[in-house]
């Protein structure tokens, strides 16, 4: 079973990587980029029948820092 | 206009970060994780009417290293 886990910073959390990318795009001549937020994506191959609880636990324990990050799980 | 740009390593390119995550999940007791690939996601807010060509150029020039990475653009 394939999973895609998308981890993004919560709203209100400063994102210096995103800001740096936004400025770099401006320097390269791309105007009109008003915001950039950077995040992470993990594509996992797990055993069929892995429970939603186990997947949530993986995210909480390792993949996401839930103090500052949101995550969402997509089955693919 | 909001865009989501997902950058992932091409098949066949070694992914040490993914391997480290896979091993860490195993150490934490999550069995059955047979593969992990790590990637990046960028959420951009761009001016309405930004052309597909401009978006592709942003990806080629800055956001993705197209020698080793694939990218895809989703409009949200």
TrEMBL record, chains A, B:
It is an enzyme of class 6 (ligase). It is found in: Cytoplasm. Its EC number is 6.3.5.3. It catalyses: N(2)-formyl-N(1)-(5-phospho-beta-D-ribosyl)glycinamide + L-glutamine + ATP + H2O = 2-formamido-N(1)-(5-O-phospho-beta-D-ribosyl)acetamidine + L-glutamate + ADP + phosphate + H(+). Coiled coil: none annotated. It comes from the Bacteria. This is Phosphoribosylformylglycinamidine synthase subunit PurS.
């Amino acid at each position: 079973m394939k999973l895609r886990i998308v981890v993004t910073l919560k709203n209100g959390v400063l994102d210096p990587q995103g800001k740096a990318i936004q400025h770099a795009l401006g320097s390269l001549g791309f105007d009109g980029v008003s915001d950039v937020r950077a995040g992470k994506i993990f594509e996992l191959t797990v055993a069929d029948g892995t429970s939603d609880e186990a997947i949530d636990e993986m995210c909480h324990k390792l993949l996401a820092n839930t103090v500052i990050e949101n995550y969402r799980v997509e089955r693919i």
